[in-house]
Write a structure and sequence with these properties.
mainly alpha; Tyrosine_recombinase_XerC/XerD; Integrase-like_cat_sf
């Protein structure tokens, strides 16, 4: 089918020309498949290549009943990108999403943990179990390096440059950056490698992967979520937290302690400074202190 060839070409374009990660490409493909499922479910016999605005509008309305505005906006954006590509490659002449507006969504401020809450979570880890040392190294790395969960699970032993005080992180779009890592976190990772990881029978595919499960394979993102959720329940923390909460806390605490936004951007691997600027909204009291301390007309 012609649209299947178009979808294959589009995925190739996302990977080669836009340099998107496998996860991002999967999300774009998911949006398109959602539309195709809608057409099939409602017996609408039209190819996605020839679909009109009149068909797209009921689809968006149908989807909006089951998702929040942020998810709806992401879906519209994903489909708009696909149809823009089809126009550019002469598969069709117009974009059926041109007249459809995305819902207005407010900028969501990230949840953060206090230093005391992070300490409580880490101290709640049962170090008498083999996975305890691993989990401690995981949480220390998430917080001290500000990693995304996928960056953590993909971290390699060959990415550790402890003598130089850095780790090499592969982020979105397979872009690499070097992030500083402190002596304390280095210590916990070293303990895990020497005392726990060295006693695991490691699958050949994961010889270089840093954090492993008991079967010697790479940890899943879901497992990291589970570890953190269980620790939060254990200490009675009434916050909806995830691995990303440690990343947000890392950036917020750096800002509160005087780090400049550009440095935080580089460590987080944000392509645009605008993304990093969200942390300027987290603690306005800190900004007032900066003004009072440094402005000549205080």
């Amino acid at each position: 089918m012609k649209w299947q060839n178009a979808l294959k070409d589009y995925k190739h374009y996302l990977k080669i020309e836009r340099g998107l990660s496998k996860n991002s490409i999967t999300n774009y493909e998911y949006d398109i498949n959602k539309l195709i499922d809608y057409l099939e479910t409602n017996n609408i016999t039209v190819s996605p290549i020839n679909i009109s605005n009149e068909v797209i509008q009921p689809f968006i309305y149908d989807v909006s009943k089951n998702v929040n505005p942020r998810s709806q906006s992401r879906l519209i954006s994903g489909l708009r990108s696909f149809f823009s590509y089809l126009v550019f490659e002469d598969y069709r002449t117009t974009n059926p999403l041109d007249l459809i507006e995305s819902p207005k969504i407010g900028r969501k401020l990230p949840d953060t943990l206090s230093i005391e809450e992070i300490d409580s979570l880490i101290n709640a880890i049962d170090l008498s179990k083999p996975e305890g040392q691993r989990n401690k190294a995981i949480l220390e790395t998430l917080y001290s390096c500000g990693l995304r969960v996928s960056e953590l699970t993909n971290l390699k032993i060959s990415d550790l440059f402890f003598e130089e005080g850095f780790i090499k992180v592969t982020g979105k779009g397979d872009k690499q950056r070097f992030v500083p890592i402190g002596p304390s976190t280095q210590k916990y990772i070293t303990i895990y490698i020497k005392e726990i990881r060295s006693h695991i029978t490691i699958s050949p595919l994961y010889k270089d992967t840093l954090f492993l499960n008991r079967r010697g394979k790479q940890l899943t993102r879901a497992m990291i979520f589970t570890i953190i959720k269980q620790l939060a329940e254990k200490i009675g923390l009434n916050k909806n937290i995830s691995p990303h909460t440690f990343r947000h806390s890392f950036a917020t605490h750096l800002l509160e302690n005087g780090a400049d936004l550009r440095a935080i951007q580089l460590m987080l691997g944000h392509e645009s400074i605008t993304t990093t600027e969200i942390y300027m909204h987290v603690d306005r009291s800190h900004l007032k202190e900066v003004l009072t301390k440094y402005h000549p007309r205080k």
